[in-house]
Structure formats: C-alpha cells, structure tokens
Design brief:
Chain lengths: ~325, ~300
Amino acid sequence: MTALIERLRHKPWVFSFAAALAVWLITIAYTQGQGAGAILTAAFSFATFTIIVGLGQMMVITTGPGNVDLSIPATITLSGVVAMKVMDEDSSRLLIGVLAAMGAATLVGVFNYGLIRLLRIPPIIATLSSSFLILSTAISYGRGIRIKPPESLAEFATMRLIGIPVMAFFVLGVSVVIAVILTRTVYGRSVLAVGQNMRAAWLAGMNVDLTRFATYVLSAFLAGICGILLSGFSRGAALNMGEEFLLASIATVVIGGTSVAGGRANVPGIWGAALFMYLLVTMLNTFGASAGIRLILTGLMIIAVIVAAGGEEPR
Amino acid sequence: MNRRLLRQALPFLSLAVVLAATFYVQPRTMSYFGLNLMLQYAVPIALATIAQMFIITVNDLDLSIGPFVGLVSCVGATLLFETPAVGLIVLLFLIAAYGAIGALVHVRNLPSIVVTLGLSFVWLGLAVLILPSPGGKAPVWLKGLMSVQVPAVPFPIIAAVVIGLLVHVALMTSSYGVIARGAGGNPKALRRAGWSMLRTKIMMYMLAGAFGVLSGLSLLGLTTSGDAHVADRYTLYSIAGVILGGGEFIGGRVSPLGAVVGALTLALAGSFLIFLRISPDWQIGAQGAILIIVLALRALVTYGEQKR
C-alpha cells in the first residue's frame, strides 16, 4: 500500500484525474445521480478543445524556462475565421478550407520563432506582440461577420459514438501521436533535452534551433486545428472565440504535472486537468453559485491543486 | 562599454521617437493640455509596471496584476468611498495577501505563473462580488489628486518622474535593493551569504501589492467610477513596459526608470495610433508592431554585447 502511494507520488498526472473525479462525484452527489452521464459527455466535448491547445502549450513550455506561447488565442481565431471564409458554407470546399487555415496557423508559428530567434525577444513578449498582429489580421480579414460552418464540419464536431463525442476519439488520437513523438522520436527527446539544459543539448550536438522552431510551429498548428473544430462546434467563427484558451492552455499544462521549468512533459495530465477545469465550472453552476463566487473558487482550486501537487525540487 | 550605454539609453530614445512622431502628426498635442490629456492614463500604467517589476526582480511573473488593479478600483469606489476606515483596512489586507502569496510561492517552490493565474480569477471574482456592474464613486480627495494642475509641467510627467526616481533610489542604490536584485541574480549565493530568501520574496511581493493598490487608486481618480474589468489589459502592459524599459525576465536585471519610461511609451503609442487615423481593425496590430520594432532595435544594439 505504501509502495503504491510512493509510486503514485511520482506520477503527477494522477492528481489531476483524482481532482476531476472528486469534482464529478460531488456534483452527482448533489444532483442525486441525475445527469451524471450527460455531464461527462459535455465534459468530453468541451475539454477536447482545451486538450488540443494544451498539448501544443505543453511542448512549448517543455523547451525550457521562459518559453510559453501567448499567441494561441489569436491563432485559434485566425484559423477559425480563415476556415469559415474559405469554406463559405460549402461542404465540398471543406478540404481547401482546412488546408488554408492550417497554412495560416503554420505561418504564425514560423513568424513567432522568427521573432524569438532573429530579434532575440523573450518568447513571452514575442508571442504577445505577434498575437496583436494576428488578431488584427483576423479582424480585418473576417470583418467581424459570424460565418457559418459547412454542414459536414458541424456534423463531425458534434457527432457522438456510444455517447462519447467523436472529437474526443480524434483528440485521443492526436494525444497518442504527441506522446509517441515525445518519447520515441529524436525530435521529442531533443525537446526534453533542450528543456533540461539548453547549453548541454547544444554541446551534445543537438540542433537546438530546429527543435525550438519545430515546437513553436507545432503549437501554432495545434491551435489551428482547435480553431477549425471550435468554429464547427459552435456553429461559426467569432473574434473572441480564442480568448478563454490563454489561461486554460497554461493552467491545464501545469495542473497536469508538466514541469514549468521545462524538460519534463506529461500527456495524460493534460486530459485530467482539462476535464477537471470543465467539471469544476459545471459543479459550481450546479450549486447555483454567482459569477463572483464561481471565479473565486475556480482560482482557489487552481492554486490548491498546484500546492498539493507541489513545486519543483530546487536545482 | 559604448553599447552598454546605448542599451541603457534605448528606452529613453524610443520614448523620444514616439513623442516626436506624435507631435509631428498632431502638432496641437505639443502643449500643456495636450500632454496632460495624452499622458494622464500613463500614471496608473506606470505604477502597475513598477509593481510587475518588483516581481520580475525575484525571477517571478505576476499574471494577476491587471485584475488586481481592477479590484482595487472597485474597493476604492465602494468601501473607501462609503466607510474610508473599512476601505483602508481592506486595501492593507490585499497588500498582506500579496506578501502571503510570495511566501507560498517561495516555501512550496511553486511556479509563480500558475499561482498568479489562479489569483487573477480570485481578484476578478472578489471585484465582481463587490461591484457586480461598473459604478460607485471615487473619493473626492482622489479625484482632486489626479486632476491637480501644476504650473508649467503637466502633472502626469511630474508624477512619472517622482515615481521613477523614488523606486530607482530604493532599488538601485540602497543596500537592501542590492539584496533584492541579488535574489533574482543568484539566490543560492544570497542564501549562503546568510540572507533570508523568504523575507526578500515577501518584501518584494508586498511592494508589488502596494504599487498595485496605488495603480488602482490613481486609475479610479481618473475614471471616477469603479469597474472590475477596467484594467484587464494592465497585465500585458506591465510586462511589456518592464521589458521595453530594458528589464529582463531572469537574473534580477531591471530598471525602475526604464520601466516608467516603457509605460509612458506604451501609453503614448496608443494616442499616436489614434492620431494616425489608421483603421480600427489594425489598431491592436500596430501596437504589436511598435513593440516589435523597439525590441528589434534593442537586439541590434546588444548584438555584439553578449554571446551565448
């Protein structure tokens, strides 16, 4: 028993799943079992968007202290707007729309790393400034109109298989791919090595620049996927559709047990943390809490989880 | 050496360029009232930037300063207006809370980004509880203070210079300031020399809280009513201000005067873009572009100074 606890202590993602489970149990205890399944289904729908961008943010944060992608919300918006506009409510233009949106998102990633590398700007400021430019591009391209998604995209985003949203399976696939990349490929191992000690990785002959470049592009790419799916799910692109994902992407990464100091990533933790964040809001809604109370408790819970999971051992 | 001097002068040069460009586009701003109008909102932004700078000095980052400034404006417009004593106690309590957060971050060795991210929800929630919709009234003395008319030099400029110099003296020349910056530069060395990292962090966090309170109150004096969301952008402004002013995220390398100048530059850039009459769509984008240009210049200047 103590051995089990000792082993679990070294798996930080367990905390996030335990927290998600606890919150879900409290909610259904309050409703006396009513809507237990419906809440889970909704959680698996909404959490998937956070999970996709969380995976990208996780890779960026893993490349070392100071690395964070603040342009994710703007990229989500840009990709959603581009996809909706190119598809123009026509299902036969689905593929070209997806390609256009993914292309735009990839360009954002290239631009971000260009700023970081060529101008030597700290990533936080680089992605912040580029997010302003991206958002302006999205505003002027989309002109604030709410464009509807083609029927096929909307159907895919809301389809269910045995009560579980199809999107959850899709994102599970993406997560598995990311996990394999992280642990089994040269690129993934390089990300971890660069995050642990950039200089050591460089001295060991790794291509640090290429690794970091690929990571920022990957993050933007995943934000692009999120933008397309989200505009299909919520039946249209809106200029503020990415807003909530800035805090959500960072919070899921850290609650999920990925090291903020870099060099240690955790894919399952992203799932636990995203589900926890969604279920937490659901629980507070069920209790009928006012907006203020809801915000305060959400904040305190985030702090409580990070305190319980503990910080880094000092290096 | 020459590059180093240039690097330190860069924030001031950037401000001069933006100011000159503004005067060129709209010559009428080159007056007492013009400057007063353009720069009045620079005072709360500068105070929030200083608050952020204290946190960055000890290698942390505060993502909650914007909502915190909003909360202070709500407390000021309600409690401080109705029962000044209660309002004052609440504000002091908020500063103490900042100190407690500093202690928590240090003792448990937590990532400050996540803790302050959580805190930003807490501050916003408290603000919404106190003042569900924008309203309330600013205390009369606060309104009076923020609309002071000083002969010859506009009040915001005097305020900015005084704030910058005070903090400069405290952080850059006092012996305690050296310890505080050392806490960011080399915490291990500091601990071995017998200084308490815990006390330093609590102190810096409380200073950040105090300047956050000052920022919120000065903002309230200008807007004259409270709003929980009034300062949402301050988090980003304050970080950008510190960096524009020559500060760095790690190593305790900060500059109080630079931070104030960075905040002034950001505030001016907003007015400048309005005078340029560019399409509202590109308003935010142009702000991002200005930020990138200034930082690109800095990269150019420091290119030879440090090699990895």
